[in-house]
Amino acid sequence: MTGLRHELRVFFVALQFLTRLPVPHWVGHESKLLQRAVRHFPLVGALIGATGAAVALGALQLWPATVAATLAVAATVWLTAAFHEDGLADTFDALLGAAPREKALAIMKDSRIGSYGAAALSLLLLLRVLLLAELLARAALPAAAALVAAHAAGRAGAVVLMRALPYAGDAAQAKAPSLTRDTLTFDAVWAALIGTLALGLAAAVPPSGIPAFAGAFGALAVIVLELRRWLRQRLGGATGDTLGAAEQLGEAAVLLAFLATWPR
Questions:
Q1: What are phi and psi of 167, to 5 degrees?
Q2: How far is 8 from 238, CA to CA, in rounded Å?
Q3: Most buried one in 10, 75, 155, 163, CB count within 10 A?
Q4: Which residue has the higher pLDDT, 238 or 172?
């Protein structure tokens, strides 16, 4: 029971870090637990995606697919306090310009949002809504499964990226520098397996299938590999903001892959 309680505590730490949901008071705050909690990020992602899916399916009983998709995306943004969306905006503000490394890192710390960040955030939110709306219009339950998988796999991709890169920012000022510095290989592999399992389960729901799974897995792999190359070149590593960007891009890539492989 001690081992089970410890693992439950680690899961709650992940839930506490990634969402605004309350957790039991005995969970507490320990940086060492957060280092291990990354293995549960995809599972927490699946819960976030399931919340969005429930909102989408409920709203679909009253409104068109576009409205249902908008409410579903809004629910996931609220549930996570726009945690990953903030990282996406900061990353694009910092890296799309010609700023050198130190300047780019300083831009990421700026609470203000710039033109690149605003454009990236707006376009990606719009893309997520449109993708989910089209999936819902074609087949509601498989669309819900794809949304759950996208949230789980997107966070799995971010964990893999954590393991693949050193921390690029100022460790003393970071919210959780140990995530990129000390992520264990086992935790990254476990997260990747959970993300892959989520994709497989969603792909098992018709009209999805092997093409949807292969497309989503491949798209996510490309996102992670290209971000790894880009971030190593521009920053020499990753930051919390870039991991948020990885999750957002991975989530959208999975939805794109599912939609591309579904019959019209």
A1: -80, 130
A2: 28
A3: 155
A4: 238
CB 118 within 8 A of CB 89: yes
Structure token pair of residue 193: 């397996």
Distance from C-alpha of 60 to C-alpha of 93, rounded to nearest angstrom: 35
| Alpha-carbon distance values, 82 to 88, 164, 180 (Å) | 10, 25, 20
Q: Give residues with Cβ within 8 angstroms of 234, minimum separation 6.
A: 95, 101, 104
Q: Which two tokens stand for residue 219?
A: 């798209």
- Per-residue model confidence as pLDDT tens digits over 192-232: 999 999 999 999 999 999 999 999 999 999 999 999 999 99
Rounded-to-10 torsion of CA 141, 143, 146, 152: -80
E strand residue ranges, the chain: none
Copy the structure tokens of residue 227.
């971000």
CA distance 232 to 220: 18
CA distance linking residue 248 with residue 45, whole number of Å:
11
**In terms of pTM, does the model score above 0.90?**
yes
